[in-house]
Amino acid sequence: MLHRHLSTRKSVKGKECRAQVDGQDYEAVIGIETHVQLSTLTKAFCSCPSKYGSHPNSNVCPICMGLPGCLPVLNERVVESAVKLGVALHCQLSLKSKFDRKQYFYPDLPKGYQISQHDIPIARNGFVDVDIPMEFGGGHRRFCITRVHMEEDAGKLIHAGNDRLSGSFYTQVDLNRAGVPLLEIVSEPDMRSGVEAAEYAAELQRMVRYLGVSNGNMQEGSLRCDVNVSVRPKEDLPFGTKVEIKNMNSFSAMQRAIDFEISRQVTLHQEGQGDKIVQETRLWEEESQRTITMRVKEGLADYRYFPEPDLPEVILTQDYIDALKASLPELPDEKRRRYERMGLSMQDVIILANDSDVATFFDAVLEKGADVKMAANWIMGDIAAFLKSEKLSISEIKLTPLELADLIALIKDGTISGKIGKEVLVELLAKGGSVKALIEEKGLVQISDPDVIESMVDKILAENPKQLEQYRGGKTKLQGFFVGQVMKASKGKANPTLLSKILLDKLNAKQ
Amino acid sequence: MRAAVPFPRLLILRPVNTPQCRRLHTVKASQTATEPSKLQTNRSACSEILRIRKSLLSRERTAVEVAEEYLTRLQQTEPYVKSFLYVSDKVLADAEEIDRRLRRNEDVGPLVGVPVAVKDNLCTRDMPSTGGSRILEGYRPPFDATAVTKLRQSGALLIGKTNLDEFGMGSTTEGSAFQVTSNPWDSSRVPGGSSGGSSAAVAARQCAVSLGSDTGGSIRQPASFCGVVGMKPTYGRVSRFGLMAYASSLDVIGCLGSSVMDAAILLGAMAGHDKLDATSSKTEVPDYAAKLVPIEALDSKPLKGIKIGVIRETMGDGVDSGVISSIQASALRLEELGAALTEVSLSSFPLGLPAYYVLAPSEASSNLARYDGIRYGSQVPADDLESMYGSSRSNGFGQEVKRRILMGTYALSAGYYDAYYKRAQQVRTLIQRDFSKALDGNDILISPAAPTAAYKIGDKVNDPLSMYAGDIMTVNVNLAGLPALVVPCGFVKVGERDLPVGLQMISAAFEEGRLLQVGHIFQQTLQNLSFEAPLPNK
Predict the structure, then answer these.
(1) Looking at the complex, does the CB of residue A216 fall below 8 Å from at least one CB of chain B?
(2) Assign residue B167 a region: left if phi > 0, alpha if psi is -120 to 50, beta otherwise?
(3) Which residues form the signal peptide (chain B) (predicted)?
(4) Per-residue pLDDT tens for A474-483?
(5) Which of A204, B189, B217, B474 places its Cα 20 to 30 Å from the Cα of A230?
């Protein structure tokens, strides 16, 4: 299904997102390296808890501190996560891969090398399909994935003694993060704008959340993107000098950082100062909304990679891969395509599918037989508003999908009115409970018996002879008055359609 | 896969007996002379572990008495030998505890009360562990190496930490940052290395047995130099957890003792899979000692059916003639015992040494990167990070270690990797293939353990290439990951002195049992040779 659909999609990258400066077209070329911290219980090569936010150096042991004589032992869950993501990204998996040592000295790197994968990554040659949000013009894009590999994170340095890095006079090392498992996902240079790049990263985040391999939290650094940006005057020219941007902790910051960097580079080209674009790493400064030079690369770093002798090769069997493949949940793009086929608008599809909690809730409501459009509208309308005002996520509310499905069914079959439905919903969101019980308890069932409504109408007409006379004398606006009176008498429960029909019949009846 | 070679039934069926023997305290060395018709036990083959065990279990002696015997000798000999970097202050207390347990008839392990010395590149939680390096001076690990844990569980008495070439890099033990160890046979000579402290300690009977590590011959060459038994197990047979890594793909922990039986018991206590070492093997550990048969139970041809190949490339140029004649005599002796002897050629043999000296330093350059002065070890304060790294490492590492870090860093550098590291790995594959071919037709390959007997202290300090050349007999075995056993087999006369020579026996992976069986028979039948070093009695 997925593939049939994908084959009909044409990449339209670069068409509507070319930077226009003084009539000259420039094209930006963007590639992204993403580090995803896996949510395994323990670290990649030791049994320390892999937990964020603990007291510094409390989740450490001789192994992740790199004490003499210590050896790494691979956490199988890391391989499992890598295979899941590799499959989800449509990659070719390496049945035989290995670990390598990437060597450099830094105080946050206890062993003096990082255990990583160099020439044989566990997965390569994949792609990811994304839908650009409607507010950015919509459309489908396919971005290719070069490789996915497993590695360990380094610790953290805390420069202390001053608010600014440059003024700090000592540095503390926290090794809680050292040895936490990472997947590095390298994209092809397929993105052409900040929006595309942000959407690519957001899709990776959705994917790891859907797969349950990472919480994908950017603020905590569970998902980190290093973006390479270059521009070139024409689409068919070789790539320009690339600049790496770091330190973006949200997708919108990523988008702004990239767009800033593109315009900075384009402007330099425009002013004939293209040679001022140098290969360097730049930091995104949120305060000033610009990128600034962090360090200029002087030659290529030589990491002296060589095969990690302490770890055996990673051998995958086809059975193992197939079993994991079969266990994968529906992925974001598959879900979006399914919602699309159900007749939802692209706008609705994106809102519902892009948050895995929302999508899970939505799917559960549908599973209970609720009407698709109504379920979508309730979730994106009243429920979304409630979540926003209460600052809750959909998984935290007391309303269950079953109750929402019941509520929708009761509205649809006329048992309660939409207005009553909204009131009931507020209560269910806050307190939980069953829709039926609540309606029973409060006597909110809509009165749809024509005889009962007729007798109510008769009673009101009899009690208000003056108004009836005025109406019949031509003051037809008084219809609203009668509706109101009946509603008041029925405590809002009278079926409005039925009431209006019966009332009109009575009002206009020939004496 | 090669077919299992039929082994004499006798060897497998007879139970182990404790040989009745007492230690000789004087030494008389003479050339091999054999009496094939009647086999007699050579006293050097007597197990020190079984002797101690027997005397403790029979209440003939207490563990404290045994410990005192060794500590006294250690005190007397240490000023001349200098094999220990640290002697435990808990030996007697630990021995008392063992005595209490014996009195309560508690289950005591196979190494009960056995004084064991541990090479200082093995981590011990109650004793400093320096790896013989200034950079780890005073360092105390928070854990025991798995091999050490297993020895403790077997009831062993850890008496101290032995000297070594810094991080195992050297063949003389002169590369220690702290002291130079002497060969107990001649205190002007080196004990070999890098496990020189462990081999000298056994030779001087400062301990019953000891642990060493072997990356390119570091157990076997000093065993040969000091006239003791050295066992280098198959790569992965003993967990490396807690061994300060020199070259991870070559490092193994092994043991030294005066008898093959002791090596068998010690190996049995240490071997096995360890979940803390992903390269440790799950291959089952046989009861090595149970398969060793006392000489009384053997007929005159106990090695019938065993095929032994003499490695031609180890018996020619550059090898001391005295060493060659000792090995030749040993080969004949094995033949007399019933083995079928042939000569085998390993054409890749001479390539091993250069390949080793690319691969081992490459891994070392990486393994030693953690000694950066940041988390532990000696730190030289400096104004910036680069200088702090530079000064700490430059101050903390010795000359040989620096040389190997530089060589390894160079070999792994971009543009050189293919010409050095990758090429050396290809050579390694060739060597493995040649060994495997030779071991298809032979149960055991034999060679000298070193091209010469022990040389003088200082001889090779300024000539590293000549020191490296001395590793020619042993490095290939590490490159192939095979087990090898060194058993003292003869002497070389140098001036007035007789210096011991060891016979190296190599087998297929995880065939330690066969090596030990053959080695045990060989050692027991070495007539008129005693490998007890003269104790200094100044």
Answers:
(1) no
(2) left
(3) none
(4) 888 888 898 8
(5) A204
Q: Which of B182, B218, B259, B378 is catalytic?
A: B218
d(CA B398, CA B143): 26
Cα–Cα distance between B74 and B66 in angstroms, integer? 12
CATH topology of domain B9-358+418-524: Amidase signature (AS) enzymes (3.90.1300)
Q: Where are the domains of chain B?
A: 9-358+418-524
- The answer to whether the CB of B226 falls within 8 A of the CB of B486 is no
ipTM (interface predicted TM) = 0.91
- Spatial distance between the Cα atoms of B114 and B94, rounded to a whole number of angstroms: 11
| pLDDT (tens digit per residue) in B56-105 | 999 999 999 999 999 999 999 999 999 999 999 999 999 999 999 999 99
pLDDT in tens, B383-413: 899 999 999 999 999 999 999 999 999 999 9
The reply to whether B194 belongs to the active site is: yes
B246: chain A residues, CB-CB within 8 Å: none
Q: Flag whether pLDDT at A108 surpasses 70.
A: yes
Within chain A, how many helices (H) and strands (E) appear? 17, 17
Query: Considering only the top CATH level, what class is A450-507?
Result: mainly alpha
State how far residue A70 is from chain B, nearest Cα, in angstroms. 6
B188 is catalytic: no
Dump strand ranges (E) for B345-416: none
Question: What's the rounded Cα separation, in Å, for the pair B469 and B353?
Answer: 7
Which residues contact residue A121 at a Cβ distance below 8 angstroms, ignoring those fewer than 6 apart?
A94, A97, A147, A148, A149
Q: How far apart are CA B198 and CA B82, in angstroms?
A: 11
Locate tokens 């330099």: which residue?
A: A268
Structure tokens at B509: 């992976």
Residues 6+ apart with CB under 8 A from A8: none
Q: How far apart are CA B78 and CA B197, in angstroms?
A: 11
Tell me how far apart the alpha carbons of residues A123 and A316 are, in angstroms, rounded to a whole number.
Answer: 11
Domain span(s) for CATH 1.10.10.410 in chain A: 450-507
